[in-house]
Amino acid sequence: MSSSYLLQSPNFSTNLKLPSKPSTPTATPCSLSVKASSSSSSSNNTPASTASKGNNIRDEARRQYLTNPPQNQNFSAIYVPFNADPVTNTESYSLDEIVYRSQSGGLLDVQHDISALKAFPGSYWRALFDSRVGKTTWPYGSGVWSKKEWVLPEISSDDIVSAFEGNSNLFWAERLGKHFLEMNELWVKHCGISHTGSFKDLGMTVLVSQVNRLRKMNKPVFGVGCASTGDTSAALSAYCASAGIPSIVFLPANKISIAQLVQPIANGAFVLSVDTDFDGCMQLIREVTSELPIYLANSLNSLRIEGQKTAAIEILQQFDWEVPDWVIIPGGNLGNIYAFYKGFHMCKELGLVDKIPRLVCAQAANANPLYLYYKSGWKEFKAVKASGTFASAIQIGDPVSIDRAVYALKQSNGIVEEATEEELMDAMAQADSTGMFICPHTGVALTALMKLRKSGVIGPTDRTVVVSTAHGLKFTQSKIDYHSNNIKEMACRFANPPVSVKADFGSVMDVLKKYLSKTPK
């Protein structure tokens, strides 16, 4: 086992008290303590110890490790077959092995040593995670790596590739909730406010960090490859570029936005524009990675789930460790719904909270295999041929993580809903009119919320979080088409096109008076 270390944050002014009698007989890992700040600490929230001339935050992390190395670090994780019986299962793999599926061909899952984590009470983990928020200490300034013990506990911080992703805004959608939904507790988790503009950064920092480790171990990994509907390739190419690792991207030709296409190109990825859809690209990349030393980065790889689950932990942190009633997540390849479940479940299992929220997976009607499966009473799953949708990142008809998603929904008493193209675009426009600038995928999730509010399943006082998976700036063309009333067979009910007017005072005044007379006060 390779020993990792847990950097101490010198600016945290409260000492964390370890349990006097850990629930397992292992020695207390002293590296989990958090030092109090000195009176001379910097006023700009930069850790005082990083101020030494010539040091950067990675150098300082290394110095801290040498000064105060970890003792009896017992946290670990392995690959096991997804949903394997913990009593009878004998199949497992080191995270340093290059393996994507179990012996039976099923999905794998990262299994943490929960007994070691349970040596510390939930109150300890809450305080530790909270102590790292807003710091620049490497690597804990990241919303992902601030939970390092729960993500990749054995990786050296020297191997971590991070853009300090995560810690994204949990936005109180006050006007949208009150005006359109008669809700007081509507929140939007803006995962798209991130390094490459989507939630995919959360998983990619973990995967690329592990690849960085494998390459240093001289494992046969030339580069990293993925099939993508846009956001995965953007995240992969950025993190690989940061680490100097080649990235190879398979994109479906003419099926993603220009903003999404330009990101991997700008970051130096080797981009293949393939004349097929996402499912076709996925099949090709799986065949290629089985023959060439290219590491597979799609959500078939369970490492990404470990990073994405931290968004769920963040939501609990942002609510001061109170559990919302509902969390609504757009679903395409369906890894994210399981990631959120896993994050919430770990918090419950380790005593940070006493319950988990109900989950809703929202799909575009043009790519809705999970919805159809749910409506059939989980009788038989059938892949579909996904049609074109403005929510292009979830235009997937044969999702890799279908088993993960079904498990998460069943365990959380979850629901699946769908949104037509007109519904999702109208919902996006309504949200934008209240001050947001969301992506079409968030429009899918908001449509699900609107339907569940109308049916009374979600109540007016239910605290509800809608997960916004990408930044609206990636999808400006869809917004332009909507507000220009330029979408065939769509009413565009909330379109707000610009008004053409002559360049003279009288004409401008006439237009403004007409506008003011119709505007509610």
Molecular structure report:
- This protein has helices spanning 57-67, 114-117, 122-132, 174-181, 200-216, 231-243, 258-266, 278-289, 303-308, 310-318, 335-349, 369-375, 402-411, 421-432, 440-454, 476-483, 505-518; strands at 77-81, 93-94, 108-112, 170-172, 186-190, 223-227, 247-252, 270-274, 294-296, 326-330, 358-364, 415-419, 464-468.
- It has 521 residues and is an alpha/beta fold.
- The chain has a six-stranded mixed sheet with strand order 4-5-13-10-11-12, sandwiched between helices.
- It starts with 56 loop residues before the first helix and ends with a helix.
Short account of what is shown:
The protein is built from 17 helices and 13 strands. By secondary structure, the protein is α/β, with parallel strands linked by helices. One of its GO terms (cellular component) is chloroplast.
Please tally the β strands and state the result: 13
- Described by the principal axes of the CA atoms, the overall outline is globular
* Helix coverage percent: 25-40%
Indicate the proportion of strand residues: 5-15%
Write the H/E string, N to C.
HEEEHHEHEHEHEHEHEHHEHEHHEHHEHH
Whole-Å distance between the termini?
Answer: 66 Å
The biggest beta sheet reads: 6 strands, mixed
Structural class, judged by helices and strands?
A: alpha/beta
Q: Residue-averaged pLDDT, rounded?
A: 89
C-alpha-based Rg, rounded: 24 Å
Helix count, DSSP H or I runs of 4 or more residues? 17
